[in-house]
Specification:
Keywords: Membrane, Repeat, Transmembrane, Transmembrane helix, Transport. One of its GO terms (molecular function) is monoatomic cation transmembrane transporter activity. This is Potassium transporter TrkA. By secondary structure, the protein is α+β, with helices and mostly antiparallel strands. It is about 55% helix and about 10% strand. The strands form 2 sheets. Strands 3-2-4-1-5 form a 5-stranded antiparallel sheet. The protein has a 5-stranded antiparallel sheet with strand order 8-7-9-6-10. The chain has 2 domains: about 400 residues, no CATH class; about 80 residues, Regulator of K+ conductance, C-terminal domain (Alpha-Beta Plaits, 2-Layer Sandwich). It starts with a helix and ends with a helix. The chain is globular and about 90 Å long. The longest helix has 27 residues.
Length: about 600
């Protein structure tokens, strides 16, 4: 091994450790490695920036906009909600809902699909007395399976396609992966409808648990005339930084003040509504002029009014809120919303709300302004997975909604017939959406997840360093030395498993970028069609079922379903094995 190879290997090992132990956001970890490669002259400026001009990465950016424009109309959501309402049996519901969901995921970004359908599923489950946990992991898995069917089904496929083009190869057609994706999706869905369903836990949802135990979350105190801080602000009255308690609302006659700001003035007769560690309410009782209302009739539903709403949101793995406490992140002032409770690993965190350091997958129950959902549904900090009472955001008129769907179908047709490349078709669709005012430039900007693009572009640069230094070739030789005596099928399984393990531990796009150069080196050494190796890596990088952190959709349903980490292993491991067997055997017979 050369000195440069050793340096790149050490940096990649450090990068993997940083991603696994969540020392920073994934995009920042990988970007930091890219900067080091640039500073050490292992990469030139052009090589380091090559990922930012990669066709696959740019196509992902356009895909975000196209998917956002189609889903903005709400037509798909409405159709699926009505379709779901006609279902009666659990198995029938899964068939009716998850088969179309997989089909939608083949052509739309699966992250907004899961965010949109999570509250629809939860409401249906609660209405029919079924645990949402029986449906939310299957929702995530169904979208992942659907994403393996087409080139535009997931960002991973587009990234692999872009890399293949960079290597001077043909790349994928729209339905190249369907040969594997369709059988894998069918096998996966059959498993979920039968064995997988039985393995799923029977948990109540987070919001459901809190509603049923609202007395443990909510306390009320009355302000009497002898309160020492009448007509003073909340901060001056000493009600801002309480030990384990959080003032979320003030009820004044018929007026309801929420979220409560530090400048809000306390008046005689105010009813102060607190959440947090209710067991510490005794500390407040020591304040003269505050009387505990032991028979309070306030519960979570009573907090809802015309100006506020109860919202459930899941912290994303790309969030700027990570590694800091809620208080340090200035959550209340930043989002104009108060955190009522935080839920992690099927349990409410029993500590002062402001001191909780958030992690990816945490569920937050928020008391927020009525426009919170509309303002932050595209936020990179969290996924808004339910608005328990907010009036539905104003939808586009049906004509614009149907027009956006027709544009998507035309895009699919032009790519399928080979008239335009995926990138050109996506670019044309975005221009049409902007020109016809289906979306505004500001909305288009909101739809694009820039941190995901930074992650992909940075990972592509790291991939260039692996090829340039010969590290990819060296790793390929080591793997072949072990696998070649076992035959080609064994080599394909080794490649699939290694890619899949990386996907579960880091991110799907990064795993694909790291493994594709290795796979292509193996194909060249063995003299086989490199396209078969590329398909193995694309499918393996997308098929993330075993951990909640491997794929964004798994993370989105983590909190709302009340799941534990082990639930993903128990349900996802058999599914992962089934998809691997299906994929490798089909690829072996089609491409070799």
């Amino acid at each position: 091994m050369s000195f440069e190879m050793i340096v790149v290997l050490i940096l990649i090992a450090a990068m993997l450790a940083g991603l696994i132990f969540e020392v920073a956001r994934p995009d920042m970890v990988i970007f930091s490695v890219l900067v080091i490669l640039l500073l050490t002259d292992i990469l030139t400026v052009d090589e380091a920036l090559s990922g930012f001009s990669n066709e696959g990465m740019l196509t992902v950016a356009l895909l975000f906009i196209v998917a956002g424009a189609v889903q903005k109309s709400g037509l798909i959501d409405q159709m699926m909600a009505k379709w779901l309402e006609n279902s009666r049996t659990q198995t029938g519901t899964m068939l009716r809902f998850f088969v179309p969901t997989s089909a939608f995921s083949a052509f739309l970004n699966n992250t907004p699909i899961v965010v949109t359908f999570t509250p629809i599923i939860k409401n249906w489950c609660e209405k029919h007395g079924i645990a949402p946990s029986k449906f939310l992991i299957p929702l995530s898995y169904a979208t992942i399976l659907g994403g393996t069917i087409t080139l535009m089904g997931t960002s991973t496929n587009l990234v692999v396609h872009g890399l293949l083009l960079d290597f001077g190869m043909e790349g994928f057609s729209l339905f190249t992966l369907a040969v594997v994706g369709v059988p894998a999706a069918v096998v996966g869905l059959i498993y979920l409808f039968t064995i997988g369903y039985k393995l799923l836990p029977d948990n109540k949802g987070f919001s459901q648990q809190i509603k049923e135990d609202s007395k443990e979350y909510i306390a009320e105190m009355q302000v009497t005339p002898d309160f020492d801080h009448l007509d003073k602000s909340v901060k001056d009255a000493g009600l801002r930084d309480l030990k384990g308690l959080y003032l979320i609302e003030i009820i004044r006659d018929t007026e309801r003040i929420s979220p409560v700001r530090s400048t809000t003035v306390i008046q005689n007769g105010d009813r102060l509504i607190f959440t947090g560690l209710i067991s510490t309410i005794a500390d407040l009782q020591r304040k003269k002029g505050l009387r505990l209302e032991t028979g309070t009739n306030i519960d979570l539903d009573d907090l809802k009014n015309g100006t506020t709403s109860l919202v459930e949101a899941v912290v994303s793995d790309q969030s700027s809120l990570l590694t800091r406490s809620i208080k340090q992140s200035q959550f209340r002032s930043k989002y104009d919303a108060g955190v009522i409770a935080v839920h992690r690993n099927n349990e409410r965190i029993q500590s002062k709300v402001g001191d909780i350091v958030l992690k990816p997958g945490d569920s937050l129950l928020l008391l927020a302004g009525a426009d919170f959902v509309e303002k932050y549904q595209q936020s990179n900090d969290f996924f808004v997975v339910s608005s328990l009472d907010t009036p539905a955001a104003l939808k586009q008129n049906p004509v614009k909604g149907w027009f956006s769907i027709i544009v998507l179908l035309a895009l699919i047709l032009t790519v399928t017939l080979g008239w335009l490349s995926m990138f050109k078709a996506m670019a044309l669709a975005v221009v049409v959406f902007l020109g016809t005012k289906i979306i505004t430039p500001q909305e288009a900007k909101q739809y694009v997840h820039f941190n995901v693009l930074l992650l992909i572009a940075s990972a592509l640069g790291v991939g260039v360093a692996m090829r340039k230094t010969g590290l990819a070739e060296w790793i390929a030789e080591v793997l072949l030395e072990f696998g070649e005596p076992l035959g080609l099928v064994a080599i394909l399984f080794i490649l699939y498993i290694l890619t899949n393990v990386f996907t579960e531990l880091i991110t799907n796009s990064a795993a694909a970028v790291l493994m594709l150069p290795i796979g292509l080196e193996m194909a060249q050494t063995l003299g086989y069609d490199p396209m078969g190796f590329a398909v193995v890596i694309a499918i393996a990088a997308s098929a993330s079922f075993i951990t909640p952190i491997g794929y964004q959709t798994n993370l989105i349903v983590y909190g709302p379903g009340g799941y534990k980490f082990t639930d993903y292993v128990k349900v996802g491991l058999p599914l992962s094995i089934l998809v691997m067997l299906t994929a490798v055997l089909i690829i072996y017979n089609v491409w070799f």
